[in-house]
Amino acid sequence: MDGTPDAMIAAMGARARAAARVLAATPTAVKQHAIAEAAEALRVAQPAILEANAADMAQATAAGLSPAMLDRLRLDPSRIAAMADGVAAVAGLADPVGAIIDETVRPNGLALARVRVPIGVIGIVYESRPNVTADAAALCIGSGNAAILRGGSEARRSNAAIHAGLAAGLAAGGLPHDSVQLVATTDRAAVGAMLSAEGVIDLVIPRGGKGLVARVQAEARIPVLAHLDGINHVYVDASAEPAMAAAIVRDAKMRRTGVCGAMETLLIDRAYPAARALVAALRATGCEVRGDAAVLALDPAILPATEADWDTEYLDAIASVALVGGVAGAIAHIARHGSHHTDAIVAEDAGVAERFLAEVDSAIVLWNASTQFADGGEFGLGAEIGIATGRLHARGPVALEGLTTYKWVGKGAGQVRG
Q1: If you count Cβ atoms within 10 Å of the first and of the last residue's Cβ in the chain, which end, N or C, has fewer?
Q2: pTM (2 decimals)?
Q3: Domain ranges of the chain
Q4: pLDDT digit string, tens, across residues 76-90
Q5: What is the rounded average pLDDT of the residues 330-336?
Q6: How far apart, in whole angstroms, are the C-alpha atoms of residue 339 and residue 354?
Q7: Taking the C-alpha atoms of 278, 281, 285 and 287 in order, what is their torsion angle to the nearest 10 degrees?
Q8: How far apart are the C-alpha atoms of 360 and 302, rounded to whole Å?
Q9: Calpha distance 330→121 (Å, rounded)
């Protein structure tokens, strides 16, 4: 066999397909035990993971990666513990495989049911965040799928150390060695090989920046599950309780600025009585504020927003702020500039809030809660493999159920159409 990326992915795919057939028929208890073993193996591998991550961080810092990218790359004992806990949580989730979605009996007596089944072989292309290696492995195994993982070159050592721990745990749990494979090469052509692997990989999921996701969506010849941007909004209505509004806005923007659930734009009802204090509270956290003309009038230290700001995912301590004409103005602004990811309203008026929840076309809409809850773990789904913002198959945090499809099962008693 030649050593081209196409040949490498084809060979990995063949092994993954064989493993997927085994996984699809593996009992729930066996999968859950293996995932729990993988979580424990990650805890045991913490020293090796930290050493690998330190080398990746040194190289990334020297290469001039942005603070947001470095934050995504960095691991410490608490993050590794959270990663292992996320994997362990998947072991405790209900297995979607075999679940009956709905069933009916036709007039001729033929019983039909739609039953959840694994998708098969899932490819995950990601960058920066090494925790995706663990999340993807656990979720694919939990839903009966084999996985082919291709992480970014900046996290090469971290991903390899995490994968080694996972593989040891899964093997100890009795699952096929090829259930989760990591593409070893950093050659970008390997990504192209994955994206064109029709019949080899059934679904590809990109996790990373806009450039990576755009490339995957443009080049893939297989189905893609992804989101391109996290241009998320918090709208503060005139009826909002000021202390709650300030707390939510601060958390939504500044808890972690580099995550896809971070607020990028703050919309404030023109009738809200504490707009000046709200913007001041955001600026006091160290966040740079860029505002429209009405916001500039609140504080001369605010920078003027350009038209591009409303369409920018900063992933940094920067927020654009606009005053809008009530909930209708907020909905219109989000429709023009949002990315269908996560948008929130802060309001005491239930009627206004329900209108926002009904009319904002995003995968996640929230009332009186921070956009930083856009996370599979916070939704009780265990680890997540990503946030899907499309309208087909899965939407919002994608976990076990989102990694299944279904088949029709019919049971008859000799029926023929004749």
Answers
A1: C
A2: 0.85
A3: 5-225+398-411, 232-373
A4: 999 999 999 989 999
A5: 98
A6: 20
A7: 40
A8: 28
A9: 41
